[in-house]
Design goal:
This protein is of the alpha/beta class. The chain is built from 14 helices and 10 strands. The chain folds into 2 domains: 163 residues, Periplasmic binding protein-like II (D-Maltodextrin-Binding Protein, domain 2); 143 residues, Periplasmic binding protein-like II (D-Maltodextrin-Binding Protein, domain 2, 3-Layer(aba) Sandwich), CATH 3.40.190.10.
Amino acid sequence: MKKNLVLSAALIAAVAVLLSACGSSEPQEVVNVFNWGENIDESIFDDFEEQTGIKVNYKVYESNEQLYTMLKQGGINYDVIIPSDYMISRMIDEDMLEKIDYANVPNLSSIDPQYLNLEFDPNQEYSVPYTWGVVGVIYNTKTVTEPVTSWSILFNEKYSGSILQFDNSRDAMATALFYLGYDINTTDKAQLDEAFDLLTKQKPMLQGYYMDQQFDKLEGGEAAIGVYYAGDAVTMMSNNPDLAFVVPSEGSNFFVDAMCIPKGAANKANGEAFINFMCEDDIVIRNMEVTGYATPSASAYAILDDELKNNPIIFPDKSILDNCQTYVNLPAETLELYNDYWTKLKS
């Protein structure tokens, strides 16, 4: 009888605690983050929640163009997005971003000044640099035994059915523009038409247009040649040592991805707290170890281990970087032309 009384008392106490917790708890603070796929160490979310009490709701997109379209369509709300340079410029021009209150992001001081006040955000009002890198060709050395030094490998009929192309218009057009020797920011319709014609001729050679699906196809040996970002190449090569990466001799794209806050974000202060957290040295390094992308943080770079610091894919030689171009936001009529090209290519 005494034992039953004790159990009953314990049960009543437990229920009381549960009811009390349910009745008195406040809704948990959240931050909604929208990022590229394969572009973060998701284990850090637990650290952020423990440090701040803010829960991370995380979703991914595949390209700058997909991000732009989803934000334009509305009906979704994110507090932090991570677009690339040229898309940040476009979003600023179209009033799609909030100015960041840098009083809430003191870790901005850790960013190397060479990555601040760049052309896409000249007054450093809307963004905090997150990663940087270059674009190149990834290929399987067991299948492609010839030296790979040029964009021409993507247009070689010898590898028909085993070539992967970007599934976004800006990057795909750039592969053709580089091969043809044109500026990737050209607005010359004759040059753009020539690049489109080259992509049209390439299409029958392709296995398809892909973004993050390239991971499985290249790592699994389903394709011989792809074109993607350096950080992702590092990941792929760690999973398949037969893969190699090269920045073509004609030049390539140098990009900076940065953290931004969309216009009308419901949790702007939480977004700024998340951005600040992402600039902490230990978090930067953990991210690098998982994603393979270079950091713009001077303080984190100073304490990187030599294996990361000396990786030529993550941190390319100056001669390679000097041969690269950065995308800029294009005029509306050129963007419309890109849309027309892409619709025709994908139809």
